[in-house]
Amino acid sequence: MEPGMISKKDLLQQAGISYGQLYRWKRKNLIPEEWFVRKSTFTGQETFFPRDKMLARVERILSMKDGDASLDDIAEAVSPDLGGISLTLAEVAERSIASEAAVGVFRSAHPDATTLVFGELVSLYVVDRLLGTGDVSLEEARSVLGTLEEQFGAFEGSDADLLCVRKMGVTVCALVSSTAEIRLESSARLVARMNLQESVEALGARL
């Protein structure tokens, strides 16, 4: 088994849920389709999941169910429809969605912008999170913003990760499926890997 993955059998045992529950949650979009990864094993085809994300999602679903939330309520919480939301830069500051440094990165790319639509808010939020970790410089943050603005639409609604790879002082950013295994040459270093769906959910809780 690949590192970071958990088999369906182990998931059901560890989480204490049934096969029926798992696929009912899938049908209700509580669990992204992309997390169901089919792989060949010595016993045939088996389904695997990204371990940490899946266990965290199952724990959240069970916790909300214990609080008497319906599956529709849970679906709205884990996959909210935020596409129609927009905020002015003043509102971004008022709600503490992004730091001055992150807003400065956005302004440098869009000096005349006053209102951000949802995709731009996600990009700004991700830039802010990365700057907050100290893993990327301001120049690299500009590259992150450009990558998200160019490629986020292709992954919207899917579970994707942002990658920042640095080699000999040069950083390249990319978006990949969250279940993709990344192997780099020895002279390259993975500076950051951030899940966009987690950022969307965290941002949604602040809007």
Draw up the topology in text.
Blueprint: E1 5-7, H1 8-15, H2 19-27, E2 37-41, E3 44-50, H3 51-66, H4 71-78, E4 86-88, H5 89-94, H6 100-109, E5 115-117, H7 118-133, H8 138-155, E6 160-167, E7 170-177, E8 188-195, H9 196-204
Antiparallel strand pairs: 1-3, 2-3, 4-5, 6-7, 6-8
Helix pairs in contact: 6-7, 6-8, 7-8, 7-9
Summarize the structure.
The chain is of the alpha+beta class. Helices cover 48% and strands 22% of the residues. Strand 2 and strand 3 form a beta hairpin.
Structure explained in plain terms:
This protein has 207 residues and is of the alpha+beta class. The protein has two domains: 5-78, Orthogonal Bundle (Multidrug-efflux Transporter Regulator, Chain: A, Domain 2), CATH 1.10.1660.10; 86-204, no CATH class. The chain has helices spanning 8-15, 19-27, 51-66, 71-78, 89-94, 100-109, 118-133, 138-155, 196-204; strands at residues 5-7, 37-41, 44-50, 86-88, 115-117, 160-167, 170-177, 188-195. The chain has a three-stranded antiparallel beta sheet with strand order 1-3-2. Strands 7-6-8 form a three-stranded antiparallel beta sheet. Strand 2 and strand 3 form a beta hairpin. The longest helix has 18 residues, at 138-155. The chain is globular, with a radius of gyration of 19 Å. The N and C termini lie far apart (39 Å). The relative contact order is 0.12. The model has no long low-confidence stretch (mean pLDDT 88).
